[in-house]
């Protein structure tokens, strides 16, 4: 993994906070009841041109549909972000959205450690982790 500069960390933090506010406002205005969208991590490339945004969506069954909706509204989200950060950033990075599955993965490991699901009897329980 590459070393992050202070500038990358600062921009990632700003984008993470503003994206969380944008998604929270969109969820309440759009009438999505019982759906929680949180921005778990934002990685910015060294040239500050691309930001990879990792989202945790609860309940998980609606994650794929919401991710597709978010990806289709990428220009609107980028515009809203550029309006919020116009005094901090000159150029808004391109946004790439991914689902963060780390909480599910950790939950599966915890269930296995507690003995609820035994991966020795069913090896497919802890399948390969998806790389994004």
Structure explained in plain terms:
- By secondary structure, the protein is an alpha+beta fold.
- It has 2 domains: 6-100, GMP Synthetase, Chain A, domain 3; 102-132, no CATH class.
- Helices cover 45% and strands 18% of the residues.
- The chain contains 4 helices and 3 strands.
- It has a 3-stranded mixed sheet with strand order 1-2-3.
- Helix 1 crosses helix 3 (74-84).
- It is globular, with a radius of gyration of 17 Å.
- It starts with 5 loop residues before the first helix and ends in an 18-residue tail after the last helix.
Concise overview:
The protein has 132 residues and is α+β, with helices and mostly antiparallel strands. The protein is 45% helix and 18% strand. α1 (6-30) packs across α3.
Helix content: 40-55%
Low-confidence stretches: none
What is the tally of beta strands? Answer: 3
Structural class: alpha+beta
Which architecture of the largest domain would the CATH scheme give at its second level?
2-Layer Sandwich
Which strand order does the major sheet show? 1-2-3
Assigned CATH class of the largest domain: Alpha Beta
CATH superfamily of the largest domain: K homology (KH) domain
Which topology of the largest domain does CATH recognise? GMP Synthetase, Chain A, domain 3
Q: Taking all residues together, what is the mean pLDDT?
A: 84
How much beta, percentage-wise? 15-25%
What is the gyration radius calculated from CA atoms?
A: 17 Å
Distance between the termini: 14 Å
Shape: globular
Order of helices and strands: HEEHHEH
- Main beta sheet: strand number and arrangement? 3 strands, mixed
Please tally the helical runs, counting DSSP H or I stretches of 4 or more residues. Answer: 4
Structural domain count: 2
């Amino acid at each position: 993994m590459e070393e992050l500069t202070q500038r990358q960390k600062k921009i990632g933090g700003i984008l993470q906070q503003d994206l969380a506010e944008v998604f929270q406002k969109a969820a309440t205005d759009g009438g999505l009841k019982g759906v929680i969208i949180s921005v778990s991590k934002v990685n910015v490339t060294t040239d500050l041109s691309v930001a990879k945004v990792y989202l945790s969506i609860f309940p998980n069954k609606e994650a794929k549909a919401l991710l597709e909706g978010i990806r289709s509204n990428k220009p609107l989200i980028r515009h809203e972000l550029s309006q919020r950060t116009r005094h901090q950033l000159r150029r808004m990075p391109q946004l790439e959205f991914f689902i963060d599955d780390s909480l599910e993965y950790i939950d599966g490991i915890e269930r296995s450690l507690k003995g609820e699901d035994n991966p020795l009897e069913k090896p497919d329980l802890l399948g390969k982790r998806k790389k994004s």
